[in-house]
Amino acid sequence: DFKDPLRKIQSVIRFSGQDAHIEDVHGFGPDGQNVVLTGDVTKMGPTAGVNLTVTAESLPIDPTLFRSFPKQEGELLASLFWTEGFESLQAAGALFDQAQVTDAAAELIVIENRLAVLTTANDQGTSLEISQLAIRAGQLRRIIDHGSFTPGGRLALTLKITRQENSTVDAAVTGSIRILNANILTSIFPYPVRAKSGEIVLHEDRIDFGDGIPFETFDSAKGMLKGRVEIDNSKGLRTLNPKLEFVLKDDALSQLFF
């Protein structure tokens, strides 16, 4: 099922015997964006039939969203926005979050002001301090020029949640996820890229990346994340078999690449 937490819910639901017709249920997601639910639930109970549609025009890409999906689909989405990989690159000084960039800008102002004072003092004893401050200023400018990168972003979605009556299996979740803007860092190839479009389509037997998710690197090289993930239910255990391609051309060799 799709389990996205909502607040300030308003609804119009019509009941007829054991059936419920949901004309409109809308509420606000974790950061205040509207989420709408419509559809039908028949023969309400543990084995109810379900035919629901969930739509959202803009949701944050975060752990709350990943936990909303069935386990395997949620883990697949999380692997495109790999937090552990980001933390490793951040610790190595290769990536920076917004707080680090903001702090660097503030520290750089202090250092530049100090350098202005020292360089006009014409004091030989200050040369070592000037050298040290100049090195630090260069490090801070690198952080600022690099900019912030944290895996995540925003997406829109339209999902169908379906299950036949008298069934004890979990409801199937199918539909489309549209990238609006995203910082992507995959676990299969942890290279940070930015995307502003692309679609992921959920089927019962596979997850398609459609025409691919186009992206750009920090050096403005263009690439594509494409392919599919096959869902195998043949042995009674639901497993995912990724067949994805990470295509990149004419990118600069850098610390991040290696």
Model description:
The chain is α+β, with helices and mostly antiparallel strands and 258 residues long. Helix content is 27%, strand content 39%. It is built from 5 helices and 12 strands. Strands 1, 2, 3, 4, 5, 6, 7, 8, 9, 10, 11 and 12 form a 12-stranded antiparallel beta sheet that branches. Helix 4 packs antiparallel against helix 5. It is elongated and about 90 Å long. The two termini are 39 Å apart.
Topology:
Elements: E1 7-16, E2 19-28, E3 34-42, E4 49-60, H1 63-68, H2 71-80, H3 83-91, H4 98-121, H5 127-146, E5 152-163, E6 172-184, E7 193-195, E8 199-202, E9 206-208, E10 213-216, E11 222-232, E12 239-248
Antiparallel strand pairs: 1-2, 2-3, 3-4, 4-5, 5-6, 6-7, 6-8, 8-9, 9-11, 10-11, 11-12
Helix pairs in contact: 4-5
- What percent of residues are in strands? 35-45%
Please provide the count of β strands.
Answer: 12
* Apparent shape: elongated
Low-confidence parts: none
Distance between the termini: 39 Å
Task: Provide a short characterization of the protein structure.
It is built from five helices and twelve strands.
